[in-house]
């Protein structure tokens, strides 16, 4: 989320036409097209965040700026050239790094929260703990994971919550 993504399309000599067919999981399809004989580009129902990376006659790559969850879906590039037709399909999955918070509840227990990540994050503790994480799904496809650390010993003063996620790992320490 928030980064730019570039999807390449195989450039071929003597290209006559290039078409990107975009079918997001949310919302309607859009199309970017290029015709070499008229040196003309065309777009249908595509947002401004989707466009050619460079000039389509030199490099038919697609750039998605400021990637959002709504951009998830299938992206197919079709190249028509004198030597034949060529297709390349991508399935774009968007990762959302969770927001990590660590706090002490009213009973002195540590609570670790990985909020609004996609996919759901994994939570572990530096000190062993038998807590079962609870997941809360959101309408936009993100998931918040809660884990509570209950100290069975009064001499535990500080511990660390570790959040593992494909978009990057994080950790925080706190003393209650």
| Mean pLDDT level | 90
Helix coverage percent of residues? Answer: under 10%
What is the CATH topology descriptor of the largest domain?
Answer: Immunoglobulin-like
Structural class: mainly beta
Using the alpha-carbon principal axes, give the shape.
rod-shaped
Largest sheet: 5 strands, antiparallel
Report the C-alpha radius of gyration, rounded.
23 Å
Strand content: over 45%
Whole-number total of structural domains:
2
C-alpha end-to-end distance: 34 Å
User: How many β-strands, per DSSP?
Assistant: 15
User: What low-confidence regions span 5 or more consecutive residues with pLDDT below 50?
Assistant: none
Would you kindly provide a written description of the structure presented here, covering whatever features stand out?
The protein is rod-shaped, with a radius of gyration of 23 Å. The chain has a five-stranded antiparallel sheet, with no helix packed on it. A four-stranded antiparallel sheet has the order 9-10-13-12, with no helix packed on it. The protein has strands at 5-7, 15-24, 30-35, 40-44, 50-52, 62-64, 73-81, 84-92, 99-104, 110-117, 122-125, 134-137, 143-149, 159-164, 170-174. 0% of the residues lie in helices and 50% in strands. It folds into two domains: 5-92, Immunoglobulin-like (Sandwich); 99-174, Immunoglobulin-like, CATH 2.60.40.10. It is mainly β. The model has no long low-confidence stretch (mean pLDDT 90).
Quick description:
It is found in: Membrane. With 176 residues, the chain is an all-beta fold.
Descriptors for this entry?
Immunoglobulin-like, four-stranded antiparallel sheet, about 180 residues, five-stranded antiparallel sheet
């Amino acid at each position: 989320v928030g980064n730019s993504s570039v999807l390449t399309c195989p450039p071929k000599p003597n290209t006559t036409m290039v078409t990107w067919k975009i079918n997001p999981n949310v919302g309607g399809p859009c199309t970017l097209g290029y015709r070499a004989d008229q040196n003309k580009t065309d777009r249908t129902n595509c947002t401004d965040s989707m466009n050619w990376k460079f000039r389509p006659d030199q490099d038919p790559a697609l750039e998605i700026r400021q990637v959002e969850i709504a951009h998830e879906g299938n992206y197919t590039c079709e190249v028509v050239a004198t030597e034949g037709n060529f297709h390349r399909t991508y399935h774009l999955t968007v990762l959302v790094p969770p927001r990590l918070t660590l706090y002490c509840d009213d009973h002195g227990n540590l609570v670790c929260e990985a909020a609004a990540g996609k996919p759901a994050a994994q939570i572990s503790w530096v000190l062993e703990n038998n807590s079962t994480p609870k997941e809360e799904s959101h309408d936009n496809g993100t998931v918040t994971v809660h884990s509570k650390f209950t100290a069975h010993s009064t001499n535990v003063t500080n511990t660390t919550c570790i959040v593992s996620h494909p978009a990057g790992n994080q950790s925080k320490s706190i003393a209650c």
